[in-house]
């Protein structure tokens, strides 16, 4: 396929509710959307880079520059057969995986449309529905947290994940377990703890009593070694997130015993090609995986649904309903979760959700169009 045009857009959307993690509070999102045109079709991708380089070293403005100056020109000046060709095409540019993923995933969407098959099927998905969990940010009070958990359980979500940090952890877990002793419960620290701090170590070692499904990325965002040491000291499974950037990282971490579960975020690892490779590595180790979220709009959410349909995504992920995050999403129909806590995988060609172009135009604060033959990388 020959990509004829690439449209970059930044939109700004307020969250339906503030979302707090150990990084801080998010009330709205600056989001980069990619639209590509080829052979009379249009396809979409979403860059999940945040407003600040806190989760990773990427952020909205660096991603825009890299896509505009480096990645999009390479794609426009090439002929690609599928999304699997993008990693080699982008290889000269080191890092910037979220920017790469936005473009690569749009190519996968285009390929699925051209073949007339669902994106999930093109990726190798086998599930008709995917199990859904929910990620709950740090709340203003414990009482507010308990109300939120009750609401999400009533909505059918199969797993509750609590964002945590020192001071918002052990006592909170104890309160939740006292009220709901049998729910599937996990926590996500986003690297808020350190083995150098005895109080942190003591806290984490005490969490075995809460029978958590997993403790997600408790230590440094780029570490395997110390996570392996911590995993040997606790019974609860450690789940690795930020430190898994590619297939090689997954192999190294699993060989070291750094964790027993992997969170695969397609933007964090650079696109569907690498996400599938990590999925396959985990399967070969007998390790479960699940799909994490990055406060995506419906475009990124549609991509997460397709990825979650692969066979080794055996744990409920963070792919939840549109209404949890947005008063109004930019796709139709919006993503909904069934009373049993599942999302139906689309069966129509491509990503399976239409884009509300008029709404995107109203939300757009900047845009740039690059066309084939006009753009030169570098």
In words, what does this structure look like?
The protein is an alpha/beta fold and 378 residues long. It has 2 domains: 129 residues, Enolase-like, N-terminal domain (Enolase-like, domain 1, 2-Layer Sandwich); 231 residues, TIM Barrel (Alpha-Beta Barrel), CATH 3.20.20.120. The chain contains 12 helices and 15 strands. The strands form 4 sheets. Strands 5-6-7-8-9-10-11 form a 7-stranded parallel beta sheet. The model has no long low-confidence stretch (mean pLDDT 96).
Chain-wise SSE layout:
Layout: E1 5-21, E2 24-38, E3 41-47, H1 60-76, H2 86-90, H3 97-115, H4 119-123, E4 129-131, E5 133-136, H5 142-154, E6 159-163, H6 170-179, E7 185-188, H7 198-206, E8 215-216, H8 225-233, E9 238-240, H9 247-256, E10 261-264, H10 272-285, E11 288-291, H11 298-308, E12 331-332, E13 342-344, E14 354-355, H12 357-363, E15 364-371
Parallel strand pairs: 5-6, 6-7, 7-8, 8-9, 9-10, 10-11
Antiparallel strand pairs: 1-2, 1-15, 2-3, 4-13, 12-14
Helix pairs in contact: 1-3, 9-10
Domain count: the total is 2
As for the CATH topology of the largest domain, it is: TIM Barrel
Name of the CATH first level of the largest domain = Alpha Beta
Class based on secondary structure composition and strand pairing: alpha/beta
Name the CATH homologous superfamily of the largest domain.
Enolase-like C-terminal domain
How do the strands line up in the largest sheet?
5-6-7-8-9-10-11
Average of pLDDT: 96
- Please tally the β strands and state the result: 15
Percentage of residues in helical conformation? 25-40%
CATH architecture of the largest domain: Alpha-Beta Barrel
Q: List unreliable stretches of 5+ residues.
A: none
């Amino acid at each position: 396929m020959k990509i004829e045009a690439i449209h970059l857009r930044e939109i700004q959307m307020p969250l339906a509710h503030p979302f707090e993690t150990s990084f801080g509070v998010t009330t709205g999102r600056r989001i980069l959307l990619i639209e590509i045109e080829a052979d009379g079709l249009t396809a979409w991708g979403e860059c999940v880079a945040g407003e600040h380089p806190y989760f990773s070293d990427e952020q909205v403005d660096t991603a825009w520059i890299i896509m505009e100056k480096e990645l999009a020109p390479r794609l426009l000046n090439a002929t690609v057969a599928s999304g699997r060709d993008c990693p080699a095409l982008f290889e000269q540019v080191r890092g910037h995986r979220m920017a790469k993923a936005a473009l690569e995933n749009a190519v996968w969407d285009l390929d699925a449309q051209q073949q007339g098959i669902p994106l999930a099927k093109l990726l190798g998905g086998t599930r008709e529905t995917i199990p859904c969990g929910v990620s709950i940010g740090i709340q203003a009070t414990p009482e507010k947290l308990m109300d939120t958990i009750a609401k999400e359980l009533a909505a059918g979500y199969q797993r509750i994940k609590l964002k945590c940090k020192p001071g918002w952890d052990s006592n909170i877990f104890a309160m939740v377990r006292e009220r709901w002793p049998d729910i599937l419960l996990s926590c996500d620290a986003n690297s808020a703890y350190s083995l150098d701090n005895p109080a942190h170590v003591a806290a984490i070692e005490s969490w075995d009593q809460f029978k958590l499904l997993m403790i997600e990325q408790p230590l440094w965002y780029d570490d395997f070694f110390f996570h392996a040491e911590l995993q040997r000291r606790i019974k609860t499974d450690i789940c690795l997130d930020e430190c898994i950037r590619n297939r090689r990282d997954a192999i190294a971490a699993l060989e070291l015993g750094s964790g027993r579960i992997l969170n695969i975020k397609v933007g964090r690892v650079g696109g569907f090609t690498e996400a599938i490779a990590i999925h396959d590595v985990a399967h070969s180790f007998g390790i479960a995986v699940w799909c994490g979220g990055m406060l995506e709009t419906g475009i990124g959410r549609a991509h997460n649904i397709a990825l979650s349909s692969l066979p080794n995504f055996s744990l409920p992920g963070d792919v939840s309903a549109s209404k949890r995050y947005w008063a109004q999403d930019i796709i139709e129909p919006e993503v909904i979760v069934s009373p049993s806590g599942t999302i139906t995988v689309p069966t129509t060609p491509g990503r399976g959700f239409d884009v509300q172009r008029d709404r995107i135009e109203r939300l757009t604060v900047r845009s740039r169009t690059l066309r084939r033959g006009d753009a030169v990388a570098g």
